Amino acid sequence: xDYLEEKFDGTEISHERRFYITSLDPSKVTPKKLLQLIRGHxxxxxxxxxxxxxxxxxDRHGTKRPGWATVFASLTNAAISVLRLFPGTEKIxxxxxxxxQWKPKNALNILGLK
Length: 114
Prior knowledge:
Elements: E1 2-6, E2 12-16, H1 31-56, H2 68-85, H3 93-102, H4 104-110
Antiparallel strand pairs: 1-2
């Protein structure tokens, strides 16, 4: 549920409310811990799936052949894992992918494949 609150000086503040259903025992989990669990779940979505969808457009690749979507996802996961092993970890993953794209021989040397 979203709503806007307008203050006397004309500024607007946006409020969002989310409702969650959980099987956790309310007497055993604090609101702070529940918030950590929820944010931890979304961290996976934001860090992994967002990048895979935005940079590699994983959601746009459709196939009618059974099993091929799983193969494609596995290859994408493998490529991302290999990119994380490359030197230059200060670069974002996409920058490392572009570096490999433009200089594939260097990538093979780094992996020990000549």
